[in-house]
Amino acid sequence: MIYSFLLAIAVLGLSILISLPLGKWMFKMMCPVPDLMGPAHRKVEGFFHKVIGRAAEADQNWKQYTVSLLIFNTIMFVVVTGVLAFQQFLPLNPDGQKAIEGSLIFNTVTSFVTNTNLQHYSGESTLSYFSQLFGIMWLQFVSAATGLAAVTAASRWLGGSRERNNFYLDMCRATFLVILPVAAIGATLLVLCGLPMTFDGAAVVHTLEGAVQTIARGPVAVEVIIKQLGTNGGGFFGPNSTHPLENVGFYSNIIECISLVIIPMGCVWMFGMITKHRKHALVIFAVMTALCLVKLGCAITFESEPAVALHDLPVAEASNLEGKELRLGAGASPLWAVFTTCTSNGSVNSMHCSLNPLTGLIPLVGMWFNITFGGIGVGFLGLFTYIIVGVFICGMMVGRTPEYLGKKVETREMKYALPALLMHPLCILGGMAIFCLIPAWGRDTVLNPGFHGFTEMLYEFTSSSANNGSGFEGLDDNTVPWNIACGLVMLIGRFIPIIFQLAICGSLFAKKEVPETVGTLKTDTALFGVVIGGTVVFIGALLFLPVAVLGPIAEYLTTLVH
């Protein structure tokens, strides 16, 4: 257990160190200052303006920015739907992959457009190389860039910046100047670790026993790095990062684990630089880190207990090794499980269905909060919603109009904040209610009865709504009801909060700045950090404690009886 704690602290610390210069780079790329740009940067910016055309000159308000965001993602949805629907006729299909069922196409395209990457299929046996590279991987870049563009615009409005906001420019900057260079470095490191990078078809090999085995391969390294950096999580292979060709060993595991969090971390530092409230950003970062450390400590402690099936057996006390990859070590599994659900990544290097009951609760908590550090951009925007609610509550408690960064938080902002906050639990709990009522949709698709089966269904809706994409497994989810329901939940969970969050930022931007007084709640103090953390914990507990009791907590209590 000590090794697991040391590994977790080392990886978290290294991630924070990398995120600091990355945040500065993101700021320079997303908010370029013409006088400070080098010749190469000027040429790139000029190229973006030529490609985008006159639309690049527009200074968009929050409504125009949001409409552009939605139009772009709609176009991407249509294009990639066409790619998957006709993949059998397109090039780069050496293994002869066939057509995909309609509801699965809808679920898959929705999943990757929304930066969820929930997979009801195995990539190596379902998708061609063309679909992987020009459909799936393309969406992994632009869906992540959508979140980065949104948080950049929101930061400008919150900081009162008069700099031009243009979604198309921000998308180009995020995709080609931030995500692509970092992905290129990461892919190179993974190739050096041994991940395959080839356009050849599956390898046919003869085993030592004389049998013939077909081993799937392909351009794995480039897709693995963007799935991690872009908080996507969708694997080239069905087993995801448990697969030896996606995650070779210790070093590839560390690289991928760090990749899960560095850009979401960098978004916080970039926010502080854009708004010129760096101390406030530090407080936000500290709250996120504290919540992450609590989840890490709980997950490692709970998973250090032996598997439930071994409780009554005369075996030595040991960590739960069920569902773990021994080449990676048992300590790396709870670390990854926390990181992948603190962000909206969703890749896995162990089977979450095999986690001890209380350990399985920790990823659920990460996705219920969805703000530590959350998805690229949207994680910060999610915490921003909690901040607005927390500031409003504190203002009402002391009998004065709440303020945030020099702007009054009034009724309009709360009307926007509450739908953004409540849409997440509504999707999860509403979906669970419907699928529990219809046995053919829910209960009959569960492979493990009882409380564990309830958790399997709960995890699927939670992962979809949080745009996470990880699966608890043990669920026959490639059915029409699951494909359609999860697809709708992913769309609602992704775009409805973004719309309302940008609306809040736009509303605050239009207001006059009010001078700070003795009664103003300062945003750069430890007290403000406590307010934020308390708001997240209390609201999260009120919303999700009942289903937590019915699922993993009840399962844990049954182990005590036996």
How would you explain this protein's 3D organization?
- With 562 residues, the chain is mainly α.
- It has a domain at 2-260.
- Helices cover 63% and strands 2% of the residues.
- The chain contains 18 helices and four strands.
- The chain has helices at residues 2-30, 39-52, 62-85, 102-113, 123-126, 129-158, 167-193, 220-229, 250-259, 262-275, 278-303, 332-342, 357-369, 378-398, 411-437, 450-465, 480-509, 526-561, and strands at 203-206, 212-215, 403-404, 407-408.
- The strands form two sheets. Strands 1-2 form a two-stranded antiparallel ribbon.
- A hairpin with a 2-residue loop joins β3 (403-404) and β4 (407-408).
- α6 packs across α7.
- The longest helix has 36 residues, at 526-561.
- The chain is globular.
- The two termini are 25 Å apart.
- The mean pLDDT is 90.
Note the gap between the termini. Answer: 25 Å
Number of strand elements: 4
Judging from the principal axes of the Cα atoms, what is the shape?
globular
Radius of gyration: 23 Å
**Percent strand:** under 5%
Helix share of residues? 55-70%
Stretches where pLDDT is under 50 for at least 5 consecutive residues are none
Biggest beta-sheet profile: 2 strands, antiparallel
H/E series? HHHHHHHEEHHHHHHHEEHHHH
**Biggest sheet, strands in spatial order?**
1-2
Structural class: mainly alpha
Mean pLDDT: 90
